Amino acid sequence: MTGPVATSTTGATTAAPAGHLAAQARALVAIGRQSVRSALAVRSEVLVSGVAVLVRVVLVILVWRAVYGSTPEVVGVDRSTAVAYAVLGAVFTNVLNPFWRSSLEVRVRQGRIAVDLLRPVGLVPQTLAQQVGTTAAAVPRCVLAVLLALVIGALQAPAGGVLGLLAFAVSTVLGVAVALLCNLVVAMTAFWTLEVGGALMVYRAVAQFASGALIPLWFMPGWLRGTLEWLPFQAQVFTPLSVYFGTVRGWDAVGAVAVQALWVVLLALLAQLVWSRALHRVVVQGG
Amino acid sequence: MAEPPADGAAGTAAREPWRPQLREVSPLRAWWVLMATSLRVVFAYRSNLLNTALGSVALQGSQLLFVGVLLHRFEQVGGWGFGEVALLFAMRLCAHAVCTVPFGQHSAIDFLINEGDYDRLLLRPVSPFLQMLAWRFNPGSLGDLSLGVVVLVVAARLAPVEWTAGAVVLLVLAILAGGLVEAGVQFALSSLSFRLRATWSLKVTVDTTFADFGPYPLGVFGTVGSLALTFVLPLAFIAYLPATALLGRTDELLLPAWAAYSSLLVGPLVFWGGYRAFVHQSRHYDSPAG
């Protein structure tokens, strides 16, 4: 059952003429758009998610202001930077670590994966397009949260003017790419275990902490920070925010962004490797 | 069970149609029978049980780690030191386990309604509410419970509390009451599913707000924030109020000192209120099967 399917999907992606590639791109855009629409389909859910991120932003501002109290500076980080970091950390984690992102495991478990495999677009691009769609649907509520923080004076414009903003944008896009690829690799373990709820929860928790979304790496003990710098998680949140606050600047910033790009390449290769193995493990349930 | 009477038996009884005699089963017994079945299912899939429990441990553990790093750097939050925050964290997590272990299946309500499974609950001679609670046991709750107990044992040593018999009784009752508060709130939110069909985000938002902002003394949220987290979203009753009684910190409350003990009464009340809301809203159930 899986044999002929495997050849058709891999065949379609490797030996495709230019017109075919354009058609694939159109299909992926359509998948992305569809998942934006499905993420925004239920009004009450959209409203609740919007209010939730606003409430969270207000609460983290209060906590961090209280933590600092009257201390102006801790380990070289002043109060307003710590509060602003916490705001952006809450916003980033809202987009990057939702409870559910990929429907991959559900599709494996319910056997719908068979239909996905028959499509003329590879499964990895399909899943990534869906994830990009879900992420895009979260952008409006996050913009609202950032505006709220700006209005109440808990956030300031990025360091380094227009160039700084540009560097932050590039770093953010790479951070999102790292997060989506990490998520994809974890979700693909469903091909072996059929059940990845637990693995995704562990991943989500580790990523939240290790990415610096909850607390910046500045405050961590040296050994912990040293360890986390070797992992892909800090490339998701800590790097873009360090660029935003100008704690890395100039060539250091370029270096930090290059490390993010390296993680994107490594994780993409890992995803491809896991996928090539997974294809031989596909069990189409109920089929 | 009664035997069907043989044909031609003497007397009028023979002409009456045969009915199986249903034994009256108490709701508690029915719940336990269903729950035991769910537990057997969960324990049949060991690796999944372990995975999901680990997931919960990681989720709650990441907050513990965050608070740990925060206190390592700042030494105190809102005037509370490491031992005090640890006790507050542990009480909140144990209360959460009191909610999730027996009542955690409220999270299945959207699924039950939208997939039409609620129809099946209505066909059986047991309250649909009890059947929902025993629908599928969430193994993650065992992760909450294990981590909660471990942290509580450690925190009890670190916290500046003299553990007299009275203090221990208060601790246990406060944890039970805190679990009832959380369960009551989640039942009330679940009841909205009969009308809104999608309450998942709302429930997750409340759950994560409790988990992520539960380990702080309420003072850090300011007057408005404290009042909102007491009377709008009753986070204060889950662990903070009784913790101030145990730690001798009732003077920092915006409420009178006796309010520190109020959760013992508020817990059962919120629980009962949430249950009534569920039963009341369930009358608006509209089967997706038409």
Explained architecture:
The complex is a heterodimer of chains A (287) and B (290). With 287 residues, chain A is an all-alpha fold. Chain A has one domain (2-8, 19-278). Helix content of chain A is 73%, strand content 1%. Chain A has helices at residues 2-14, 18-39, 43-68, 79-96, 104-110, 113-118, 123-151, 161-188, 190-193, 197-210, 222-228, 238-244, 251-278, and strands at residues 73-74, 77-78. Chain B has one domain (28-33, 42-284). In chain B, helix 2 runs antiparallel to helix 3, helix 3 runs antiparallel to helix 7 and helix 3 (82-103) crosses helix 12. The A-B interface holds A 42, 44-45, 48-49, 51-52, 55-56, 58-59, 62-63, 66-68, 71, 74-75, 99, 193, 195, 197-202, 204-206, 208-209, 214-215, 219-221, 224 and B 47-48, 50-56, 58-59, 61-63, 65-66, 69-70, 72-74, 77-78, 140, 196-202, 204-205, 209, 212-213, 216, 219-222, 225.
| Series of secondary-structure elements of chain A, N-terminal to C-terminal | HHHEEHHHHHHHHHH
Number of helices of chain B: 13
Overall number of strands of chain A: 2
Shape assignment of chain A: globular
**Helix content, binned percent of chain A:** over 70%
Q: Indicate the proportion of strand residues of chain A.
A: under 5%
Low-confidence runs of at least 5 consecutive residues of chain B: 1-11
The mean pLDDT of chain B is: 89
For the largest interface, the chains and their residue counts are: A-B, 39 and 42 residues
Q: Which word captures the global form of chain B? A: elongated
N/C terminus separation of chain A: 9 Å
Q: Provide the structure class of chain A.
A: mainly alpha
Radius of gyration of chain B: 23 Å
Layout of SSEs?
The complex is a heterodimer of chains A (287) and B (290).
Chain A: H1 2-14, H2 18-39, H3 43-68, E1 73-74, E2 77-78, H4 79-96, H5 104-110, H6 113-118, H7 123-151, H8 161-188, H9 190-193, H10 197-210, H11 222-228, H12 238-244, H13 251-278
Antiparallel strand pairs in A: 1-2
Helix pairs in contact in A: 2-7, 3-4, 3-7, 4-7, 8-12, 8-13
Chain B: H1 27-44, H2 46-74, H3 82-103, H4 109-114, H5 117-123, H6 128-133, H7 140-158, H8 165-191, H9 193-196, H10 200-213, H11 222-232, H12 235-247, H13 263-281
